[in-house]
């Protein structure tokens, strides 16, 4: 796959540098002029190629080699992209203790395909950029998420921030019908008497992920449960042309 073109122009510098070369060609060093022209050519070729690929995807369905009939594609009854359904992806917030990051990642990886196609948009605190206000970023994402996943372990219950801040706000939004909260049971613990225990958990029957003989199957089971809620939210909010 071709890498992104590396250009020293920047978005605003293109016209200025091109104008300087056009009006002052006799005063521009040959090496700079050649590098600039080469960079412009690379950028134009790259973005023209990308536009061609996008147009091809939009205008040409998938066909069998000997037929003009589109190939049937397996799905979970989800549209192929967010633009076919809602005006934006379903936002999913990951609430977890850092000690459980590796286990959380096993479930997260099962959802990557839907994220790439724009059906969902996952967020967790490892995406916070250095130097950012981490508390503000967490609050912003938590307050606007459609689905909030609580990754339940003894570490989660022990964490004051996970328990007293993120879980409390998640349940408040759930009770206000502003978001859906899904407990994801990662490790065995005494969670059955916790405030979130009234909510249906994943994997099936709240069986902790670490107790599955095949952990991949457990993570897949949890992801399928999460995507069933995504499907439900999409069906409640059809695309504008479907709602008309």
Name a few traits of the molecule.
244 residues; 2 domains; Rossmann fold; disordered N terminus; alpha/beta; 4-stranded parallel beta sheet
Q: Would you give an account of this structure?
A:
47% of the residues lie in helices and 9% in strands. It has 244 residues and is an alpha/beta fold. It folds into 2 domains: 13-59; 82-243, 3-Layer(aba) Sandwich (Rossmann fold), CATH 3.40.50.10140. It has a 4-stranded parallel sheet with strand order 2-1-3-4, with helices on both faces. Helix 3 (101-110) crosses helix 8 (215-236). It is globular. The two termini are 41 Å apart.
Number of domains: 2
- What is the CATH topology of the largest domain? Rossmann fold
Under the CATH scheme, the architecture of the largest domain is 3-Layer(aba) Sandwich
* Main pleated sheet: 4 strands, parallel
- Describe the strand arrangement of the main beta sheet, using strand numbers: 2-1-3-4
Distance between the termini: 41 Å
